[in-house]
Amino acid sequence: APPCQSGGLHRVETLVSIARITSLHAIAATMHVTLARALYQAALSLVGLHLARRNAQHANEGLSPAHPRYNDAAALLGGGLAHAAKSRTVSRRWRDFVVEERCGDAFGELRKRWHCGRELARLGRRDPCQALEVLGGGGSKGAANRGLCFFVTRCGQYIIKQESSATLRTLDNVAKTYAARASVQGSLLPRLVGAYTVRSNTTTTHWLVMANTFAGAPKIKAVYDVKGSTAGRRTRPKKGTLKDLDARDDAAQLRCYGSGEVVEALSGDTRVLEQLRLLDYSLLVGVCEPGLFGGWRAARYKKRDRGTRMLVCRDRGFLVVGLIDVLQPWTWAKVAEYYCRGALRGWRRISAVPPVFYRRRFLAFVSRLLDT
């Protein structure tokens, strides 16, 4: 063929090759988009299936009318939480019960600050079977031994805990100071949002409503209750909430970044507790599994001011930390326990020690544990 014709054929073949390559790229891009959409739809289907299964499971775990505290819980909801949007201390009649709100002025201001009054009011207008379920494991061992009940709201945001009359008397004395410190940005004090006494002709029960420490956090795979004491503070090989000696054994997994800010916040919180002569509080530490969407959920959790702190572990994963059980005063019973039990187990090892020493030991243990 003449040179001019061969050059033209070469250009045509080149254009055909380019067209084929372009079409192949277009087909590949279309396939990628189609595959991405298919994966997205599959993910949505899996999430929907998970939520459906979870809701079906929760539907069978509601508070049963056969529960011994069902009527008290119903009175607490209808006569107490249903009016949580208001901020005053009053007594209300609900059927055959009288529901008295304790420290209503202090808690009313806190509910306004934390924007939870309307949410609690909506919860209070629901049926107990739909609003509450018995907390798995029944709460703490000590409370179970005293016959006290733990409920958790079906949304998982709040815990309703039956308390002794002595605990609520302590709260009456410290409520204003507690509210002043808990309202400070960055405080790790537990989010107490209400306290109530429910009376009938035959019974009187006392209840404390608080925010759930782990609400909204990624999946929790292990929980530690840290006091700083060592006497009787081991759970393994049994199952349940791990304690100080277990945390010491797992210290390599609990080292994290940013623990200095946590210790600083704890120092301010425990200084107030020391001034109020309170002790026996714990740092609740939840170890979160990163999971597929763990980083995204952790970022969402960090944005909300919920009285807890999320830390990034050095070996992957997250920690959620917050104070609990802050209403135990230094009473004569604790003084007797300090001398009697301390003589047997060691004064530095037991939990019942004077508030000044308790705070110092607690902060030192937490600092070493989180590797400040």
TrEMBL record:
Keywords: ATP-binding, Kinase, Nucleotide-binding, Transferase
Record-annotated PIPK domain positions: 35-370
A cellular-component GO term for this protein: plasma membrane
InterPro entries: PInositol-4-P-4/5-kinase_C_sf, PInositol-4-P-4/5-kinase_core, PInositol-4-P-5-kinase_N, PInositol-4/5-P-5/4-kinase
Domain of life (superkingdom): Eukaryota
MF terms (GO), sorted A to Z: 1-phosphatidylinositol-4-phosphate 5-kinase activity; ATP binding
Gene Ontology biological process terms from the UniProt entry: phosphatidylinositol phosphate biosynthetic process
Alphabetical list of PANTHER family matching this protein: PHOSPHATIDYLINOSITOL 5-PHOSPHATE 4-KINASE, ISOFORM A (PTHR23086:SF8), PHOSPHATIDYLINOSITOL-4-PHOSPHATE 5-KINASE (PTHR23086)
UniProt name for this protein: PIPK domain-containing protein
